Amino acid sequence: MTTLAATVRDHGEGERRWFSGGGLHTWLATSAETGGAFLLFEFVGEQGKVTPLHIHPASDETFYLLDGEILLDLDGKKRSLSAGGVVVIPRGVPHAFRVVSPTTRFLTIQTPGTDEAFYRLASEPAPDGSRPIPVDFDRVRDAAEKTGAIQIVGPPPF
Hints:
mainly beta; seven-stranded antiparallel sheet; 12 strands; about 10% helix; QDO-like; RmlC_Cupin_sf; Cupin domain-containing protein; about 160 residues; Cupin_2; Jelly Rolls
């Protein structure tokens, strides 16, 4: 039996990565730290950031909004979500989002934590003072194809 060590991170701690689909991730609990049970990161994005319509074939995705507002497309239905809101997206459900407030910040939990390789391939380290990397959906698509963590099923539906 393997016993995991406790993971403790205070505000501002955690690996920071610029995502090539836009935004900044701060990794709060990695798949290795949770024994593969989940991946937890904070996302910070600016108005206009969108995702292509996609599915996660092997993981469920949960967002808990801390600040701001996003517009969700869940299987073709639009829904706004603001601070204090939560959405649980079961694996296989097509979804996308667009940041509609000037900025937004939310927690993302993926269960199990199998999609971490995708996020690593589609991002770059974000040391203090660094600037965001350009949005590169080709890189996102390549990382998706290499890892199988997501399947892009359409352009942003907004």
